[in-house]
Amino acid sequence: MKVKVIPVLEDNYMYLVIEEHTREAVAVDVAVPKRLLEIVGREGVSLTTVLTTHHHWDHARGNVELARLWPGLAVLGADERICALTRRLTHGEELRFGAIHVRCLLTPGHTSGHMSYFLWEDECPDPPALFSGDALSVAGCGPRLEGTAQQMYRSLAKTLGILPPETKVFCGHEHTLANLEFAQKVEPCNDHVRAKLSWAKKRDEDDVPTVPSTLGEELLYNPFLRVAEESVRKFTGKVAPAEALEALCRERASFEHAAEPLQPQARALLALQWGLLSTPDRSEPRVDPPWGQVAHPSSPDP
Protein backbone atom coordinates (compact mmCIF):
# COMPACT_ATOMS: atom_id res chain seq x y z
CA MET A 1 0.00 0.00 0.00
CA LYS A 2 1.42 3.32 -1.11
CA VAL A 3 0.02 6.65 0.11
CA LYS A 4 0.57 9.86 -1.86
CA VAL A 5 0.22 12.97 0.31
CA ILE A 6 -1.21 15.86 -1.77
CA PRO A 7 -1.24 19.36 -0.20
CA VAL A 8 -4.00 21.58 -1.64
CA LEU A 9 -5.83 24.85 -0.95
CA GLU A 10 -4.54 26.79 2.07
CA ASP A 11 -3.69 23.89 4.38
CA ASN A 12 -5.70 20.83 3.28
CA TYR A 13 -4.51 17.35 2.40
CA MET A 14 -5.91 15.01 -0.23
CA TYR A 15 -4.59 11.46 -0.41
CA LEU A 16 -4.19 8.85 -3.11
CA VAL A 17 -3.94 5.28 -1.81
CA ILE A 18 -2.45 2.79 -4.27
CA GLU A 19 -2.72 -0.99 -4.22
CA GLU A 20 0.69 -1.73 -5.68
CA HIS A 21 -0.11 -5.16 -7.18
CA THR A 22 -3.39 -4.38 -8.97
CA ARG A 23 -2.56 -0.66 -9.46
CA GLU A 24 -6.05 0.20 -8.24
CA ALA A 25 -6.27 3.56 -6.46
CA VAL A 26 -8.60 5.15 -3.93
CA ALA A 27 -8.71 8.91 -3.26
CA VAL A 28 -9.50 10.47 0.10
CA ASP A 29 -11.14 13.92 0.43
CA VAL A 30 -10.99 15.30 -3.08
CA ALA A 31 -10.83 19.10 -2.98
CA VAL A 32 -8.92 19.79 -6.23
CA PRO A 33 -9.79 17.09 -8.79
CA LYS A 34 -7.48 18.15 -11.61
CA ARG A 35 -4.50 18.05 -9.27
CA LEU A 36 -5.54 14.56 -8.20
CA LEU A 37 -5.88 13.37 -11.80
CA GLU A 38 -2.40 14.69 -12.62
CA ILE A 39 -1.00 12.37 -9.96
CA VAL A 40 -3.25 9.48 -11.02
CA GLY A 41 -1.84 9.82 -14.54
CA ARG A 42 1.74 10.13 -13.37
CA GLU A 43 1.42 7.03 -11.17
CA GLY A 44 -0.28 5.03 -13.92
CA VAL A 45 -3.08 3.76 -11.67
CA SER A 46 -6.79 3.08 -12.09
CA LEU A 47 -8.88 5.34 -9.85
CA THR A 48 -12.05 3.53 -8.78
CA THR A 49 -13.28 5.12 -5.57
CA VAL A 50 -13.41 8.31 -3.51
CA LEU A 51 -13.66 8.05 0.28
CA THR A 52 -14.96 11.32 1.76
CA THR A 53 -14.58 11.91 5.49
CA HIS A 54 -17.21 14.65 5.76
CA HIS A 55 -19.33 17.04 3.74
CA HIS A 56 -17.44 20.32 4.21
CA TRP A 57 -16.47 21.79 0.88
CA ASP A 58 -12.72 21.81 1.42
CA HIS A 59 -12.96 18.02 1.72
CA ALA A 60 -15.73 17.22 -0.78
CA ARG A 61 -15.95 20.11 -3.24
CA GLY A 62 -14.09 18.23 -6.00
CA ASN A 63 -16.41 15.22 -6.06
CA VAL A 64 -18.85 16.59 -8.64
CA GLU A 65 -16.20 17.59 -11.17
CA LEU A 66 -14.20 14.41 -10.60
CA ALA A 67 -17.29 12.25 -11.18
CA ARG A 68 -17.90 14.14 -14.41
CA LEU A 69 -14.31 13.72 -15.58
CA TRP A 70 -14.09 10.07 -14.42
CA PRO A 71 -17.36 8.24 -15.28
CA GLY A 72 -18.24 5.24 -13.14
CA LEU A 73 -16.40 6.55 -10.08
CA ALA A 74 -17.79 5.43 -6.71
CA VAL A 75 -18.09 8.30 -4.20
CA LEU A 76 -18.54 6.95 -0.68
CA GLY A 77 -19.15 8.54 2.71
CA ALA A 78 -21.48 8.52 5.70
CA ASP A 79 -23.31 11.82 5.22
CA GLU A 80 -25.99 12.50 2.60
CA ARG A 81 -24.74 16.09 2.41
CA ILE A 82 -21.55 14.91 0.63
CA CYS A 83 -21.42 16.11 -2.97
CA ALA A 84 -21.99 13.45 -5.67
CA LEU A 85 -22.39 10.66 -3.11
CA THR A 86 -23.12 7.33 -4.79
CA ARG A 87 -23.46 5.18 -1.65
CA ARG A 88 -23.80 5.92 2.03
CA LEU A 89 -21.52 3.94 4.34
CA THR A 90 -22.30 2.66 7.84
CA HIS A 91 -20.17 2.32 10.95
CA GLY A 92 -18.15 -0.89 10.97
CA GLU A 93 -18.69 -1.62 7.29
CA GLU A 94 -15.66 -3.12 5.53
CA LEU A 95 -14.55 -2.53 1.95
CA ARG A 96 -11.92 -4.26 -0.14
CA PHE A 97 -9.62 -2.91 -2.85
CA GLY A 98 -7.33 -5.72 -3.97
CA ALA A 99 -5.30 -6.65 -0.89
CA ILE A 100 -6.31 -3.44 0.92
CA HIS A 101 -9.01 -3.70 3.58
CA VAL A 102 -10.94 -0.60 4.69
CA ARG A 103 -12.90 -0.42 7.93
CA CYS A 104 -15.33 2.49 8.12
CA LEU A 105 -15.38 4.17 11.54
CA LEU A 106 -18.11 6.71 12.28
CA THR A 107 -16.51 9.52 14.30
CA PRO A 108 -19.07 12.27 15.00
CA GLY A 109 -18.02 15.49 16.67
CA HIS A 110 -16.64 17.78 14.01
CA THR A 111 -19.72 16.88 11.97
CA SER A 112 -22.48 14.40 12.76
CA GLY A 113 -21.70 12.28 9.69
CA HIS A 114 -17.91 12.24 9.90
CA MET A 115 -16.38 8.92 8.82
CA SER A 116 -12.75 7.93 9.39
CA TYR A 117 -11.14 5.12 7.39
CA PHE A 118 -8.81 2.46 8.80
CA LEU A 119 -6.78 0.65 6.13
CA TRP A 120 -4.52 -2.37 6.23
CA GLU A 121 -3.12 -4.82 3.70
CA ASP A 122 -3.00 -8.60 3.68
CA GLU A 123 0.37 -10.18 4.47
CA CYS A 124 2.14 -6.83 4.54
CA PRO A 125 4.70 -5.76 7.17
CA ASP A 126 3.80 -2.09 6.73
CA PRO A 127 1.71 -0.54 9.53
CA PRO A 128 -1.98 0.20 8.98
CA ALA A 129 -3.18 3.68 8.07
CA LEU A 130 -5.94 5.90 9.42
CA PHE A 131 -7.46 8.65 7.29
CA SER A 132 -9.03 10.74 10.01
CA GLY A 133 -10.20 13.89 8.20
CA ASP A 134 -10.95 16.43 10.91
CA ALA A 135 -11.82 13.94 13.64
CA LEU A 136 -8.16 13.67 14.63
CA SER A 137 -5.15 15.68 13.49
CA VAL A 138 -1.50 15.80 14.47
CA ALA A 139 -1.57 16.96 18.12
CA GLY A 140 -5.18 18.09 17.86
CA CYS A 141 -8.61 17.60 16.34
CA GLY A 142 -11.17 19.64 14.44
CA PRO A 143 -13.59 21.90 16.33
CA ARG A 144 -16.86 20.36 17.48
CA LEU A 145 -19.51 21.79 15.17
CA GLU A 146 -22.23 19.15 15.47
CA GLY A 147 -23.18 16.67 18.16
CA THR A 148 -22.19 16.51 21.81
CA ALA A 149 -18.93 16.48 23.73
CA GLN A 150 -19.74 12.91 24.81
CA GLN A 151 -20.01 11.81 21.16
CA MET A 152 -16.74 13.51 20.36
CA TYR A 153 -15.05 11.85 23.34
CA ARG A 154 -16.28 8.43 22.23
CA SER A 155 -15.01 9.09 18.70
CA LEU A 156 -11.54 10.01 19.91
CA ALA A 157 -11.05 7.71 22.89
CA LYS A 158 -13.21 4.68 22.17
CA THR A 159 -13.14 4.48 18.36
CA LEU A 160 -9.80 5.92 17.22
CA GLY A 161 -7.78 5.76 20.45
CA ILE A 162 -7.95 1.95 20.62
CA LEU A 163 -6.47 1.32 17.17
CA PRO A 164 -2.97 -0.22 17.01
CA PRO A 165 -0.35 2.29 18.23
CA GLU A 166 1.74 1.81 15.07
CA THR A 167 -1.16 3.08 12.92
CA LYS A 168 -0.09 5.96 10.68
CA VAL A 169 -2.42 8.94 11.02
CA PHE A 170 -3.16 10.90 7.83
CA CYS A 171 -5.30 13.90 8.79
CA GLY A 172 -7.15 16.55 6.78
CA HIS A 173 -5.16 19.70 7.55
CA GLU A 174 -1.67 21.00 8.22
CA HIS A 175 -2.41 22.51 11.65
CA THR A 176 0.41 20.78 13.49
CA LEU A 177 2.41 23.80 14.62
CA ALA A 178 -0.58 25.63 16.13
CA ASN A 179 -1.84 22.39 17.67
CA LEU A 180 1.49 21.74 19.38
CA GLU A 181 1.75 25.30 20.64
CA PHE A 182 -1.63 24.81 22.30
CA ALA A 183 -0.57 21.38 23.59
CA GLN A 184 2.45 23.02 25.22
CA LYS A 185 0.13 25.47 26.97
CA VAL A 186 -1.95 22.54 28.27
CA GLU A 187 1.04 20.43 29.36
CA PRO A 188 4.11 22.68 29.67
CA CYS A 189 6.14 19.90 31.30
CA ASN A 190 5.39 17.28 28.64
CA ASP A 191 8.74 16.41 27.02
CA HIS A 192 7.00 14.68 24.10
CA VAL A 193 5.16 17.91 23.24
CA ARG A 194 8.39 19.89 23.48
CA ALA A 195 10.29 17.51 21.19
CA LYS A 196 7.49 17.29 18.62
CA LEU A 197 7.10 21.08 18.57
CA SER A 198 10.82 21.52 17.86
CA TRP A 199 10.54 18.96 15.04
CA ALA A 200 7.41 20.62 13.59
CA LYS A 201 9.07 24.05 13.54
CA LYS A 202 11.89 22.61 11.44
CA ARG A 203 9.38 20.99 9.08
CA ASP A 204 7.56 24.31 8.81
CA GLU A 205 10.78 26.15 7.97
CA ASP A 206 11.50 23.58 5.26
CA ASP A 207 7.88 23.81 4.00
CA VAL A 208 7.31 20.05 4.15
CA PRO A 209 4.29 18.15 5.54
CA THR A 210 4.15 16.91 9.12
CA VAL A 211 1.90 13.98 8.21
CA PRO A 212 1.72 11.18 9.00
CA SER A 213 2.16 10.79 12.71
CA THR A 214 1.36 7.54 14.52
CA LEU A 215 -1.42 6.87 16.96
CA GLY A 216 1.12 5.86 19.59
CA GLU A 217 2.77 9.28 19.24
CA GLU A 218 -0.57 11.05 19.43
CA LEU A 219 -1.32 9.38 22.75
CA LEU A 220 1.86 10.97 24.12
CA TYR A 221 1.31 14.59 23.07
CA ASN A 222 -2.22 15.17 21.74
CA PRO A 223 -4.22 16.72 24.62
CA PHE A 224 -7.53 15.71 23.04
CA LEU A 225 -6.51 12.06 23.42
CA ARG A 226 -5.16 12.70 26.94
CA VAL A 227 -8.24 14.05 28.73
CA ALA A 228 -7.97 11.30 31.37
CA GLU A 229 -4.41 12.39 32.28
CA GLU A 230 -4.00 14.32 35.53
CA SER A 231 -2.11 17.17 33.82
CA VAL A 232 -4.93 17.75 31.31
CA ARG A 233 -7.65 17.45 33.98
CA LYS A 234 -5.78 20.02 36.05
CA PHE A 235 -5.61 22.41 33.08
CA THR A 236 -9.33 22.08 32.32
CA GLY A 237 -10.52 21.92 35.91
CA LYS A 238 -12.68 18.92 35.03
CA VAL A 239 -12.52 15.27 36.06
CA ALA A 240 -15.03 13.55 33.76
CA PRO A 241 -13.29 12.95 30.38
CA ALA A 242 -16.12 14.35 28.22
CA GLU A 243 -16.32 17.48 30.37
CA ALA A 244 -12.55 17.88 30.19
CA LEU A 245 -12.75 17.54 26.41
CA GLU A 246 -15.47 20.18 26.19
CA ALA A 247 -13.40 22.56 28.32
CA LEU A 248 -10.34 21.81 26.20
CA CYS A 249 -12.30 22.71 23.04
CA ARG A 250 -13.27 26.06 24.56
CA GLU A 251 -9.68 26.77 25.54
CA ARG A 252 -8.47 25.81 22.06
CA ALA A 253 -10.92 28.26 20.48
CA SER A 254 -9.75 31.06 22.79
CA PHE A 255 -6.13 30.21 22.02
CA GLU A 256 -6.79 30.43 18.28
CA HIS A 257 -8.46 33.82 18.61
CA ALA A 258 -5.63 35.19 20.71
CA ALA A 259 -2.95 33.88 18.35
CA GLU A 260 -4.59 34.91 15.09
CA PRO A 261 -7.51 37.37 15.20
CA LEU A 262 -10.27 36.83 12.66
CA GLN A 263 -9.63 38.58 9.34
CA PRO A 264 -12.92 38.23 7.47
CA GLN A 265 -11.79 40.03 4.31
CA ALA A 266 -8.81 37.73 3.86
CA ARG A 267 -10.95 34.63 4.49
CA ALA A 268 -13.60 35.86 2.04
CA LEU A 269 -10.91 36.36 -0.61
CA LEU A 270 -9.62 32.83 -0.09
CA ALA A 271 -13.16 31.48 -0.34
CA LEU A 272 -13.69 33.39 -3.58
CA GLN A 273 -10.42 32.09 -5.00
CA TRP A 274 -11.43 28.52 -4.15
CA GLY A 275 -14.86 28.96 -5.72
CA LEU A 276 -16.55 28.40 -2.37
CA LEU A 277 -18.81 31.46 -2.65
CA SER A 278 -20.46 30.26 -5.84
CA THR A 279 -22.34 27.32 -4.31
CA PRO A 280 -26.13 27.76 -4.57
CA ASP A 281 -26.79 26.00 -1.27
CA ARG A 282 -26.09 28.59 1.41
CA SER A 283 -27.41 26.42 4.22
CA GLU A 284 -24.33 24.17 4.43
CA PRO A 285 -20.87 25.00 5.81
CA ARG A 286 -18.68 25.79 2.82
CA VAL A 287 -15.25 25.29 4.32
CA ASP A 288 -13.87 23.96 7.58
CA PRO A 289 -13.62 27.00 9.89
CA PRO A 290 -10.70 27.64 12.24
CA TRP A 291 -11.16 26.94 15.94
CA GLY A 292 -13.87 29.09 17.49
CA GLN A 293 -15.46 30.13 14.19
CA VAL A 294 -18.40 28.63 12.34
CA ALA A 295 -18.93 28.54 8.61
CA HIS A 296 -22.60 29.47 8.89
CA PRO A 297 -24.58 31.19 11.66
CA SER A 298 -26.84 28.15 12.05
CA SER A 299 -23.97 25.84 12.96
CA PRO A 300 -23.76 24.97 16.67
CA ASP A 301 -21.00 26.47 18.76
CA PRO A 302 -17.90 24.24 19.15
TrEMBL record:
Q: What Pfam families does the annotation carry? A: HAGH_C, Lactamase_B
Q: Which cofactor does it need?
A: Zn(2+)
Q: In which pathway does it act?
A: Secondary metabolite metabolism; methylglyoxal degradation; (R)-lactate from methylglyoxal: step 2/2
Which purpose does this protein serve, as stated in its record? Thiolesterase that catalyzes the hydrolysis of S-D-lactoyl-glutathione to form glutathione and D-lactic acid.
The record's listing under PANTHER family reads: BETA LACTAMASE DOMAIN, HYDROXYACYLGLUTATHIONE HYDROLASE-LIKE PROTEIN
Q: Which domain of life is it from?
A: Eukaryota
CDD domains with a match to the protein in the record: hydroxyacylglutathione_hydrolase_MBL-fold
Q: Where is this region: Disordered?
A: 280-302
The organism of origin for this protein = Equus caballus (Horse)
* This protein's encoding gene: HAGHL
Which region is the signal sequence? none
- Full protein name: Hydroxyacylglutathione hydrolase, mitochondrial
Return the similarity comment.
Belongs to the metallo-beta-lactamase superfamily. Glyoxalase II family.
Q: Which UniProt keywords apply?
A: Hydrolase, Metal-binding, Zinc
Write down the chemical reaction(s) this protein catalyses. (R)-S-lactoylglutathione + H2O = (R)-lactate + glutathione + H(+); an S-(2-hydroxyacyl)glutathione + H2O = a 2-hydroxy carboxylate + glutathione + H(+)
Q: Which GO terms describe its molecular function?
A: hydroxyacylglutathione hydrolase activity; metal ion binding
Q: Which residues form the Metallo-beta-lactamase domain?
A: 11-173
Source species taxonomy: Eukaryota, Metazoa, Chordata, Craniata, Vertebrata
